[in-house]
Every structure is written in C-alpha cells, then in structure tokens.
Amino acid sequence: MSELDRLRHAMRVTERPGATLDLAAVMRDGRRLRTRRRVAGAGAATLATGLVAAVVAVVAGALPGDPRTIERPPPVAVAPMPPAGVTPTPLGTPGRTPATTAGRTEPPPSPLGQVIDSGIRHGTDQRVYYVVQVSVPGQPRVKIGLVAGRRAPHGTLTTDLLVNDVEGSDRSPGFHQIGYDSGGSPAPVPTFGYFVGPAQRIIGTVNGRQVAARLARWSADKQVVIFWFDPADLAPGDRLDGIVARDGSNRRL
Fold first, then answer.
1. In terms of residue numbers, what domain contains 188?
2. Are residues 125 and 238 in the same domain?
3. At what angle do helices 23-60 and 3-13 cross, to 10 degrees?
4. Is 251 part of a structural domain of the chain?
5. Is residue 166 part of a domain?
6. Rounded Cα gap, residues 144 and 110, in angstroms
7. Average pLDDT over residues 33-43
8. What span, in angstroms and rounded, lies between the C-alpha atoms of 228 and 230?
9. pLDDT average, residue stretch 161-184
10. How far is CA 145 from the centre of its chain?
11. Which residues are bridge partners to 168 per DSSP?
C-alpha cells in the first residue's frame, strides 16, 4: 500500500461507526507524503538541468563537418601603414645625397658644352670635366652640375663624381660646391669645382701651404670657371683649409 493509499484509508476510518480518528497518524503520513513530493520535485529539476547541460555539451563538442560546428576565422596579419606623406623605399636602393653622386652605373648624363681634358691620365683614359643638367626639387634656379669623369680612347664617358648646388642659384657670383674624392671610384678624383666671375687665378690652402689650381672656362658660359688641383700638388681627398679667387689685377674676388 502506498503512502497516499494509507492516508486515504486513515481518513475513511472516521466514516465508519465507532471509528476513532488517529490524528497523529494522519499528520505523520501527510508530512511524509509532502516530503517525498518535494524530493521528487528536486530530482526532476536536477534531471532537467542535467539534460540541458548534456545538450550544451553536445553542441559545443560537435564533430568537424557538423552543420552546428562554429569555427573561428584564422588571425589576419595586418601590415603597418607608413606615416602619411612617406613613400616606402624598395630594399636594396642605394641612398644618394643631393650634392654628390659617385660610381654611377646608369648611362652618364649628356655634357652641356665642351668636355674639358684635364691633362691627367688614368691608364689609357683621360680625366675630364664637363657640365650636365640637373634638377633639384624646390630649387628652380639650380639647373647645372659639374662632373669629374673619364673618357676612354673610343670616346665613351664614365661619370666618377657629380657635384651641384642644393639651394640658391647655380650662377650666383663666387665659389660653388667643391668635389672631393669619395673613395668610390677606381681612379682617384682630383679636388675640383667651379667659380662664377672673372677669376684668373684660384689658390687653395692646405696645412698652411698654398696650391694653385688649373683653370678652364665653360664653353656655354665664360663666367663659369672650372678648376681642379693636380694630384701631385694636392692629394685626392685632402680637404682644403681655404680657397680664394683673384682677377687679372690680382684682386681678390
């Protein structure tokens, strides 16, 4: 007999004549029945929770290929962008200063005017100087540069060193950029440069010693005086302590 049946039996006893009601038994059976219902309810809730957890576990652990499987996309590497206004430089591109360029491998620039033979020889090659066209960004009045190069017996020109102004005007009176041997040429480059004005003599000073330069005028503009120092008087690469130009009356320009 179940607990519920026993409780009903105890209640029906009171309906029979002469029956006595055992209140203690009724209360005891009622409490036992309520307790079992609460235990059963808690068990059902626990079972429901277990089922939900099982369903979640199945979805989270779905096999590859299951339509419920969610895969995270692989991380994407984002290359950093260069700062605004900066153009990336390809690897392996040699840097150049705006004033000098040594050891050019591209075809040499075409001379403007006549090529000047310095009288210096490197094997069968002549040491020569010539003016070329240049372009300096933001400097519209800088249009020419001076090259120290070599001329082969068959006439091919090789550029060893190019100097030019980087600001102002390339025809302003006075001295302009002076080229020194940079060590990048297979043939030593004598110190050279140009002066704008009526110079008849150009004298350099090094270690307290005065050294006279050799001169030639540019065929396209006689005011441009090209000068260079004989390597026997001034070793290529040695820096001058000072330099002056004088006119035909020996006045300093």
1. 100-246
2. yes
3. 160
4. no
5. yes
6. 12
7. 46
8. 7
9. 94
10. 30
11. none
